[in-house]
Design goal:
binds flavin mononucleotide, about 15% strand, single chain, eight-stranded parallel beta barrel, two-stranded antiparallel ribbon, alpha/beta, globular, TIM Barrel
Length: about 350
């Protein structure tokens, strides 16, 4: 019988439990993405609260493309010292920490017109209606290199690994998607071509950071709309990622604001469930591949999570919003208070004064 509170190995990381703080943009940095005292405190609370593996909010890999205010930066070496302080702080509590690295893209309403936003093709993002600039080969190389450098900086700053953000309609997701990627060169068309951007980012980063440094990828299970990336394609992507050496995959989706209306519906033959929206998708993938799979989205009850652990091959459980409400949630559960999360998943946690639980932490 597998246990939630047992030591496990994810790549070369030894984790003290199977709980992950899923990447959560905190909106608490300086304008340029630098750390603030407030933000150190957020991470200290999570580490104190016994989260086994903390994933940072998404950090932008190039300075000029910041898809949201208050997000962490990793776009030059000036970040290394302050992140060393962060990783040392988290390690004091025996938690591990990954930096999530990202290029945003057209899923944004922030500072439109003030910057060039790259996209695979001229297809407006469905939610924001924003159009990006189709990338030239040189621009693709520039972004690939920016991810690689972000990986190197993360390693130098003492992060235990990185998570490449390939989900939620951001740039990498758009390259994977037949809806957003209409390219006619080697980066578009077949799934193999659509995967090329992600594969190049991974492979070049691997060359830079060496064989042992954990690199994880967060992916969208399915785009859940006609013409979008399908779950069957995501399964193939995951197999390929395993083959080339990725250490773990987090299976997500892009439904959180719409979860209420989508729970109970089936897509690609699998149901989106209230407890663990993407559980069925993560479960299938965890049987396809031998590297650890992390499920995220809608988890709320420790006994159900325990059942999932023992009835599926899913190894890790990532939580975002409930940890904004209760940063000590994991410790509370570990100490025997097994009440469900307080978070009601209303998604009112994004505010212009920082992202926090506006319902319980006024
Ligand atoms: C305020 C907020 C910020 C988020 N920021 C990120 C992020 O930076 N990167 C990411 O991959 N997902 C981000 N997410 C999505 C979460 O990681 C997670 O996938 C989603 O909230 C579902 O998990 P939950 O039901 O436990 O909240 C964010 C979610 C919220 C509510």
């Amino acid at each position: 019988m597998k246990k939630l509170f047992e030591k496990t190995q994810l790549g070369n990381m030894t984790l003290k439990n199977r709980f992950v703080r899923s990447a959560t943009w905190e909106n608490r940095t300086t304008k340029d993405g630098h750390m603030t005292d407030e933000l150190y405190k957020v991470y200290e609370e999570l580490a104190k609260g016994e989260v086994g593996l903390i994933v940072t909010g998404y950090a932008n890999v190039v300075k000029e493309e910041q898809p949201n205010p208050g997000m962490m930066g990793i776009y030059n070496d000036s970040f290394i010292d302050e992140y060393k302080k962060l990783t040392d702080l988290v390690h004091e509590y025996d938690s591990k920490i990954l930096m999530q690295i990202a290029y945003g893209g057209t899923k944004t309403t922030y500072n439109l017109g003030e910057r060039v936003i790259f996209a695979p093709s001229e297809v407006a993002e469905r939610g924001t209606n924003t159009l990006g600039k189709p990338m030239t080969k040189d621009e693709i190389d520039y972004i690939v290199n920016a991810f690689v450098e972000a990986g190197r900086r993360s390693m130098e700053a003492g992060f235990d690994g990185v998570e490449i953000h390939g989900a939620h309609t951001y740039l990498i997701n758009q390259f994977l998607s037949p809806y957003y990627n209409k390219r006619e060169d080697e980066y578009g068309g077949s799934l193999e071509n659509r995967m090329r951007f992600l594969m190049e980012i991974y492979s070049k980063m691997r060359e830079k950071v060496g064989h042992d440094y954990p690199i994880l990828v967060k992916l969208t299970a399915s785009e859940f709309f006609e013409g979008g990336l399908t779950f069957e394609e995501t399964r193939i992507i995951c197999k390929k990622l395993e083959e080339i050496g990725v250490d773990g995959i987090e299976i997500s989706g892009n439904i959180h604001g719409k979860a209420k209306s989508m729970v109970g519906q089936s897509f690609d033959g699998y149901e989106i469930k209230q407890e663990g929206y993407f559980l069925e998708y993560g479960n299938v993938i965890s049987k396809d591949i031998n590297i650890p799979v992390i499920t995220v989205g809608g988890l709320k009850d420790i006994n159900n999570i325990d059942n999932i652990l023992n009835e599926t091959n899913i190894d890790y459980f990532a939580i975002s919003r409930p940890l904004l409400t209760e940063p000590n949630l994991i410790k509370r559960w570990k100490d025997g208070d097994e009440k469900q999360v307080k978070c009601v998943r209303c998604s009112k946690c994004r505010t212009s004064n920082g992202n926090y639980c506006t319902v319980f932490n006024k």
